[in-house]
Each structure stands twice: as C-alpha cells, then as structure tokens.
Specification:
- The chain is α/β, with parallel strands linked by helices.
- The protein has 2 domains: about 190 residues, Rossmann fold (3-Layer(aba) Sandwich), CATH 3.40.50; about 70 residues, Helicase, Ruva Protein, domain 3 (Orthogonal Bundle), CATH 1.10.8.
- The chain has 11 helices and 9 strands.
- The protein has a 7-stranded mixed sheet.
- Strand 2, helix 3 and strand 3 form a beta-alpha-beta unit.
- The chain starts with 8 loop residues before the first helix and ends in a 12-residue tail after the last helix.
- The model has no long low-confidence stretch (mean pLDDT about 95).
Length: about 300
C-alpha cells in the first residue's frame, strides 16, 4: 500500500516549479494539499475493489493515490501538460491508474462505476452537465466552490434556487458530504469549497420529452425573480409568438399553477407538468417544435 501524505506549501511550490506549472489565477486553479481531506472524500465514496472510478483534474495526485488504494481501476483526466508529467512520475508505482491526457470537455470518457473529483472550478457547470448526460454512474462525489454547491443543494423558495439547481436535480439527487476550508489548498483560494454526492434520481416525475423540459427551463429562468406567467409571456414574445399562449399553457397545467408563483418557488413537479403541457401545444401546432422535428 502506498503511503499518502499531506503536501506542505513549499513542497507544492517546488513540484510546480519542477514541472513548469504556473497556477492560473484566471481559472482559480488551486491544489488540494491535505491528506486527511483527500482520504475523507475518497472514503465517503464507499469504493470497492471491484469498481472503476473517474477523476477529473488530477493535479498533483493526492486524491488519485487514495482512489488507487480503494478501487480496482482509476482513470484520471488531466489537461495541463506539466501536471501530466507530474502525475506520471508521482503515480509511477501504481499499476491500476491510467492517466488520460486531454480536455475533460472534449475527450471520450471511459466506462466507470463512480466519479470522485476535485473539479476544475472554472468549468464546474459545463463539466457537471457533460458528466450527467454522458456517464452512467452509480454515484459522483464532487468538490465545488461553496457557492456553486449551495446552488446545487438549494430548495424551492431559497435565493440560491435557479436554473442550475433545476437542471442538475432533474438528473440526480444531491447530498452535502463535507465542507473544505480554503486553507486546505495552494494557492489559497478566496472561497471555501464543499463536497457533494450526486446519485441518479430514480423517483419521478420525469418529463415526457426531456429536450422540451430543458428548453422551457432555459427560456424562463433567465428571469428567476419574476412570476411564472410574466416570464412565460416574455419568453413567448422573444420567440415572436403570441404572448397570450402563456395563458393557454397555464390553463392546460390546471390547478397546479396559477401564474402568479415566483419562479424560485416552483417545484420540479410543477415544471414537469408545464413542460408536458408545452409538448401538447407543440403537438396541436400552437407552438413550433424548437428542434424542427415532428412530434
């Protein structure tokens, strides 16, 4: 078993110089230095020796080394050429780790059971949705900036409840695992981090047509503080449709929504109902299918 240890600030700086890596201030690039935090993240994922796991953003390998001890196979994706060199040297003694050099937003992902990642914060939203749409995982244990994690965990009616919340929660249930102070990283970021666990949502409701559901969500949640009726009228008007169609949609949704509810208060059930009614309106040719397809 490889002994994993914490990395001191001067040691991290030395490794970064050795492999010609300059942390990007623009993208907020920081490296986890705490062995205890890495251990606790991996332990929370409940990995077994029969499972394969994907890590995105390998950094200096502190999380990867714990993953290698607990899983059958670890695939670690790293874009930075210098960090790829570092990982290949640091992890050279581990025969169950495969390093994939490339952009996590562009590469083909391997088949895995679980995800455990300290995600690059600059691509948090894009990479999360790519993982949700393209990887069939049993669980994803992911570290985000605290504010981003709070939006994933938000409940209807709260200030953090928005399009991101709904888009992610349509796919998965989200649970808070642990908080990670900024002091556990180098360079020390300006904000703390949080680890959450995503598990595929098994209980309904699910939209008749998910594409139409996400089209609706993307359209109306540009105005998160407005009432649903007002947001629908603006959305239809922007699409050069009769804004009165907003009332038609609300009428078809029935008693579940009146039109005066604030978008931040709408539950997934109500939004799915609205999306299904929108599908009916497309079938009745009151609204054109945005995909240019026949329903």
């Amino acid at each position: 078993m490889v002994r994993v240890r914490s990395l001191f600030k001067e040691e991290v700086k030395s490794l970064l110089r050795k492999y010609s890596v300059r942390p990007s201030k623009k993208t907020g690039q920081s490296f986890l230095t705490s062995n205890r935090v890495a251990r606790d993240i991996v332990w929370s994922a409940n990995l077994t020796k029969d499972e394969s796991v994907l890590e995105i953003g390998g950094g200096l390998g502190i999380l990867t080394q714990w993953l290698a001890q607990c899983a059958k196979t670890v695939y670690v994706v790293e874009k930075d050429v210098g960090l790829v060199r570092a990982l290949r040297e640091i992890l050279s003694g581990l025969d169950n780790v495969e390093i994939i050099e490339g952009d996590a937003l562009a590469i083909d992902f391997p088949e895995v059971n679980k995800l455990v990642c300290n995600l690059p914060y600059s691509i948090s939203s894009d990479i999360t949705f790519r993982l949700l749409e393209e990887v069939k995982f049993e669980s994803a244990t992911l570290m985000y900036q605290k504010e981003f994690a709070e939006r994933l965990l938000a409940e209807p009616g709260s200030a953090n409840y928005a399009r991101l919340t709904i888009g992610v929660r349509y796919h998965v249930d989200v649970a808070h695992i642990m908080s990670v102070p900024a002091s556990m990283f180098y360079p020390v970021p300006k904000v703390d981090s949080s680890v959450v666990c995503l598990t595929p949502r098994l209980a309904g409701p699910f939209a008749r047509n998910p594409e139409i559901f996400f089209w609706l969500i993307h359209g109306i949640y540009s105005y998160p503080n407005k009432q649903i009726g007002k947001a629908l009228r603006i959305w239809f008007r922007n699409m050069k449709l009769d804004k009165a169609l907003a009332n038609t949609l609300l009428d078809r949704a029935g008693a579940s929504v009146t039109g005066t509810e604030r978008l931040r208060t709408l539950t997934l059930d109500i939004l799915v109902t609205l999306a299904d009614c929108l599908v009916e309106m497309i079938e009745d040719e009151l609204v054109l299918d945005p995909r240019g397809k026949s329903m």
